[in-house]
Structure formats: structure tokens, C-alpha cells
Write a structure and sequence with these properties.
Elements (H helix, E strand, L loop, with lengths): L1 E8 L2 E8 L2 H4 L11 E9 L6 E3 L1 H20 L14 E7 L2 E6 L19 E5 L1 H16 L23 H7 L6 H10 L19 E2 L16 E2 L18 H6 L8 H18 L10 E8 L4 E6 L2 H5 L6 H4 L14 E8 L5 E5 L17 H18 L10 E7 L5 E6 L2 H5 L6 H9 L13 E7 L5 E5 L5
Parallel strand pairs: 4-9
Antiparallel strand pairs: 1-2, 1-8, 2-3, 3-4, 5-6, 6-7, 10-11, 10-12, 12-13, 14-15, 14-16, 16-17
Helix pairs in contact: 2-3, 2-5
Length: 477
């Protein structure tokens, strides 16, 4: 199940998206589903049109820096946790009594934010006022109070000795009205050694003010732009505040479910992934480097998760359709202990989409489904298919290489499936009559193939000189 959690304050909203560990979720069927595998985290701040976004490493670093800086601000005692530039993605710096600089270290800095000229890879720098800061602290507080979201992630606060504190009680009275949550007040109290570090207790049942379990039920704040800001690097050494993350989120999911490895099934799923992503990739310009992702796909073709493979892919995920093609639990049964296939998806700088099995094919795949094998029937269907395609293919070709397809028909010579076999066939499929023929029957060019009855398979080649070849299928080459 694709799960979202939202922790919202007037000046800050945290939006977490992830999956449930099915081996653990089965024990809590009557409760809110547990978000145990974080896929994406977004932080919306008032006054900025774009959210900060990243994966688990980014989110962990954010909550550590927020908590550490809040303690430092209230106590006036330096807290290294808030400024650990060497091992953290996120840090804070005090500008003045009412201005606090949030710094996210990343390879690239989107337009619209200040850039530092002293770094080879400029960080993102955002100035917050004190009210915005403590709304962010309160949003983090709501997250830690939610025991059904990343329950293994904990925060260890260390008290600051009273004799090192330089802030006055007046400062506490000034800051506390902007921070009224459990851990927010705990940070303030610990800063002055007034109470021991808190032991967070499970919250009482609440209404939907904190969270929602499905993608469609949550909309980001109105100020959120369509393209988020990515702020994550591939690796980060966890501190003692949290349990180390030893595996990536998608890998963690794969460790709990079987993996689909059958070449024939992978071949069929490969097409379904392409058919979902290809038409959804609208803007194909502006990429400076290829964006490479690892996808998890269920047996019915639903895309259940993705992970950036290279840093550019993480930074520019908003330029891809992946966030929009994740399966919708409202239109599909929840993901349970289903087998998952892995695919490598590349959005190239030339605007070409590449999809292939993550581990390749162990052997040559075969066409799935029952086949018509009687030679006389196949010969008759071959002639009918040639005649139908020949009559509907008109116009002067603009392609310069052969377009090769596998085309399947039923016993009545009605097209039941077609599949491009080379890249040029993907690129120029609209110059063939195949999509129109398929759409006329099934109402969609990306409908699932008709494999409920025996089919005869053929290789169809559209040549640049206008010639057409149709021959019985002999298998993938």
C-alpha cells in the first residue's frame, strides 16, 4: 500500500510517502497502516514556492538538525548536531534573533534560492523567522508522536548544563508560544536542564488531522510547486540518534517479498512499464544527464516504488512522470505479500525512454499465453494480417530504418497484441496503423494484451521504402 502522512502547521507542512512492511502490517490490520519504508519526504515552508524533498537520509538529517538547532537557539549554547556539515545533509545557522538559515547540502541548487559562492556544489539556503522555525519543530514533533510512521526512528536529546545556558527565561516565554508540541517544549526545557530528556508516549487516538493513508486524500499546500527540490546524496553515515539504515527502501521491500525472475513474465511487464511511463513523460527537454531509476513492479504491472540510481536522478525526479505513475490504492487492491519485479528505467538527454529488467534476462524470453500452432491456420492468418495492415498503411514514411513489431491475432484475424521490437519502432509507432487498430478494438493504445484465447504471432516489418513484410513469429532474437 502506498501511504502518505501529513503533519501540518500554518507555516510548515511535512509530507511523507512510503510503503508498509507487509510482514509487520499483517499484525495491525485494524489500525492505521504503518509507514515503515520511506520513499519520499517533502517539506513545504511558507513563503517559498517549492518544497524541499529527498529520501530517508534527507529526512533523518532534517529532524536531527531541527531538534539540535532548536535546543541551541533556546539555550544559546552551541550544539554541534545543528552544524555538522561534514556528515549531515542539513544544518542551521543563526543569522540574528529572528532569522535562522536552513542549509541543505546537495550537488545542485534550483533557481529561486540563494546560492553560496564559496562551495563547489552550492547548497540551498533558506531564511526562516522564529515562528516558521518553531512550526517546523512542531511538525517534527507531530511526526515523532505518530507511532505508525517510521516507528524505529527515534530522537535522543541531551540536556545542556544550566551553567552554560546564556538565554533568559524571557526568551523562553517569547519562543514557546510558537512551539507548543510535546517534543518542542521538551527541547526548550532540556535546553535549561529543567526536566530530564523525554520518553515519548504513544499518542491517544486522533482524528485525521495528522495523516491520511492514501495518495489521493492528501494535497500539498497551495504554495507547493509541481517540481520539488531534491536534497539528498546517495550515502550518509547515520549518527547515534537513530538506528543505522543498512539497506535502501526499495531493497528493504524486496527483502520481504518474492522477486519475479521469469524472463517471459519480465518481458511482458517490461512492456507494461513502458506503456505507463512513456505517454506520461511530457517535457523531454532540459536534461543535462541521463536520469536512471530502479523500479519495483507488481505482477499486474503496477509500479509500487522507485529509487534514484544516480545523483542527478534524485535531484531531478520532478522532471520525470514517476511520482505520478505510482499505483493508486483507490483503484487497485492494496499491495500485500506479492512478488515484485525490478526494472531499470532511464530518461535520456535525447528524450528517449529506456526500460529493461534490472538483472537482465536469464534466458531468451518467450511469448506468454496459448498459441495457435496449426500451420494452415497460421498461413491463412498471415495473409489476412498482411492484407489488413497493407490497406490501412498510407503516407510517406519519415523513418530511415526498419520498424519491427511482434503482432498477435486471434482465430478471426483480429489484432490482440502488438509489441515494438527495436527502438525505432517505439519512436515511430504512430506512423504505423497498429495503434489505431488496437485502439479501435480496446479503446486504448496501452490496454493490456488479450491473452484469454489462443493467438497466432507474427513479425511485422515496416520498411522505409514503403514495403511491408509479415512472417510467422520465430521467437525473440
Amino acid at each position: 500500500m502506498n501511504i502518505q502522512r501529513k503533519y501540518s502547521l500554518p507555516n510548515c507542512t511535512l509530507l511523507l510517502e512510503g510503503l508498509s512492511d507487509v510482514t509487520r502490517a499483517a499484525q495491525f490490520q485494524e489500525m492505521r497502516p504503518e509507514l515503515s519504508i520511506l520513499v519520499n519526504a517533502e517539506c513545504y515552508l511558507s513563503g517559498y514556492n517549492q518544497p524541499l524533498t529527498g529520501g530517508r537520509e534527507f529526512f533523518e538529517s532534517l529532524v536531527r538538525a531541527v531538534s539540535g538547532y532548536a535546543q541551541e537557539f533556546l539555550s544559546s549554547v552551541p550544539n554541534p548536531q545543528a552544524h555538522n556539515q561534514e556528515s549531515e545533509l542539513v544544518e542551521f545557522r543563526k543569522v540574528d534573533s529572528n532569522r535562522h538559515r536552513l542549509i541543505i547540502h546537495s550537488e545542485g541548487t534550483p533557481e529561486g534560492f540563494d546560492r553560496s559562492n564559496n562551495s563547489k556544489h552550492p547548497p540551498i539556503e533558506i531564511d526562516l523567522n522564529t515562528v516558521q522555525l518553531f512550526d517546523l519543530v512542531e511538525a517534527v514533533d507531530q511526526f515523532f508522536a505518530d507511532t505508525q510512521t517510521l516507528p524505529e526512528l527515534s530522537l535522543e536529546l541531551q540536556p545542556v548544563t544550566r551553567r552554560y545556558g546564556g538565554a533568559s527565561q524571557a526568551l523562553v516565554r517569547q519562543a514557546v508560544p510558537a512551539a507548543v508540541g510535546v517534543s518542542s517544549l521538551a527541547v526548550a526545557a532540556i535546553a535549561f536542564n529543567l526536566i530530564p530528556p523525554p520518553q515519548l508516549r504513544p499518542p491517544q487516538p486522533k482524528t485525521d488531522e495528522q495523516s491520511s493513508s492514501t495518495t489521493n486524500n492528501i494535497a500539498p499546500p497551495a504554495s507547493a510547486a509541481a517540481t520539488p527540490i531534491a536534497a539528498e546524496t546517495p550515502t550518509l553515515t547515520p549518527t547515534t540518534n537513530t538506528k543505522p539504515t543498512t539497506v535502501k527502501d526499495l531493497e528493504a521491500l524486496l527483502n520481504t517479498v518474492p522477486e519475479i525472475t521469469d524472463p517471459s513474465q519480465l518481458r511482458a511487464l517490461n512492456r507494461q512499464v513502458y506503456n505507463q511511463v512513456h505517454p506520461a513523460w511530457a517535457n523531454r527537454s532540459g536534461l543535462q544527464q541521463d536520469l536512471i531509476y530502479r523500479l519495483g513492479v507488481a505482477a499486474d504491472g503496477a509500479i509500487v516504488g522507485y529509487k534514484a540510481v544516480n545523483k542527478e536522478a534524485n535531484l531531478e525526479v520532478g522532471k520525470t512522470p514517476l511520482p505520478n505513475v505510482l499505483y493508486n490504492p483507490a483503484t487497485r487492491p492494496p499491495i500485500s505479500n506479492e512478488p515484485i519485479a525490478q526494472f531499470r528505467v532511464v530518461f535520456t538527454t535525447q528524450g528517449v525512454l529506456q526500460v529493461s529488467p534490472w538483472r537482465g534476462y536469464a534466458r531468451t524470453p518467450e511469448v506468454v499465453g496459448t498459441k495457435i500452432t496449426d500451420s494452415n491456420i497460421v498461413k491463412n492468418l498471415n495473409q489476412k494480417l498482411y492484407s489488413t495492415v497493407r490497406q490501412t498503411w498510407s503516407g510517406k514514411p519519415t523513418f530511415t530504418r526498419d520498424l519491427k513489431y511482434r503482432v498477435a491475432v486471434n482465430k478471426d484475424a483480429v489484432i490482440a497484441d502488438y509489441e515494438p521490437l527495436n527502438q525505432v519502432a517505439f519512436d515511430y509507432f504512430r506512423e504505423t496503423p497498429l495503434p489505431k487498430m488496437f485502439n479501435a478494438i480496446y479503446g486504448s493504445n496501452v490496454a493490456a494484451p488479450n491473452d484469454k484465447e489462443p493467438l497466432a504471432h507474427f513479425q511485422v516489418i515496416f520498411k522505409p521504402n514503403g514495403n511491408l513484410e509479415v512472417t510467422p513469429w520465430k521467437g525473440y532474437q
